[in-house]
Design goal:
The protein contains 8 helices and 7 strands. By secondary structure, the protein is an alpha/beta fold.
Length: 257
């Protein structure tokens, strides 16, 4: 797909760094970037290519040349989603940071809904929920939904917070928060790890309903049953085996605008 040449410049209210971990997403990454960049809040898009083998990097290069908001980073060895996010978070400069998967299972049109509690000065962290009862949802795997709900329940029992979707891919943070946390998990264990760590920091956590357009495995979905067992390990590890190294309430500085 040719690089987009008619994308609008960053909006005057742009305040969002979008972190996109990408692995073998040559078929979708251009569409994802075009969809992300038309969102008014987007200030910068940080794409981390995790040693893709399908030409993802070659697709990304002309896209970055066409829009200065796109910043590219590349791993020479595949390390996993958590490692890509660790790289991306460190490079963010905008006051609010969100994770965006490279496959459009999650809709960038939800950015404003997610950002509202932070911009209103009410939240430090906002999680999107696929199960909170609003937005379009593609009907897919029953046992995946059961597994997600079990993992969320176990996470809630250990963190003493009441999320409905711990494994959601849409997680938004004030930049000071996410750059203050050391991300240790390299793969999909990032989700329970980050939930455990923010819950231990005394932060204001909100959850908002989002749309979800899930993929089938034939369409490129990568998460599997092994990642479910890894999530269980991470729930136990980061809530029981590790004493939080973070102060109960970190200093967050000025409100994001």
């Amino acid at each position: 797909m040719p690089a987009p040449t008619n994308l609008p410049p960053a909006h005057k209210s742009a305040c969002l760094a979008v972190i996109i971990p990408a692995y073998d997403e040559a078929g979708s990454i251009a569409t994802v970037l075009q969809t992300v960049l038309v969102q008014p809040l987007v200030q910068e898009v940080i794409v981390v290519d995790d040693a893709s083998r399908d030409g993802t990097w070659a697709v990304l290069l002309p896209l970055a040349q066409a829009d200065a908001r796109i910043k590219l980073f590349q791993h020479t060895v595949n390390q996993g989603k958590g490692a890509s996010l660790r790289t991306g978070f460190a490079k963010a400069t905008a006051p609010i940071v969100i994770v965006q998967d490279a496959d459009l299972e999650y809709d960038p049109a939800d950015y404003a809904t997610l950002a509202h509690p932070i911009l209103a000065g009410k939240a430090d962290v906002v999680f999107g929920s696929r199960f909170a009862g609003s937005g379009a949802h593609r009907v897919l795997y029953f046992w995946h939904s059961v597994g997600n709900k079990i993992l969320t329940l176990l996470s809630n029992m250990t963190t003493n917070i009441n999320l409905t979707d711990m494994e959601s891919g849409y997680k938004m943070f004030r930049r000071e928060v996410v750059q203050h946390i050391k991300i240790e998990e390299n793969r999909f264990g990032f989700e329970p790890e980050i939930v455990a760590k923010v819950s231990q920091m005394g932060l204001r956590i909100y959850e908002v309903p989002i749309s979800y357009y899930g993929r089938t495995y034939a369409e490129g979905k990568k998460i599997g049953w092994r990642d479910g067992f890894s999530a269980l390990r991470c729930i136990f590890k980061y809530n029981f085996l590790r004493k939080s190294p973070y102060p109960r309430k970190i200093h967050l500085g000025a409100q994001a605008t």
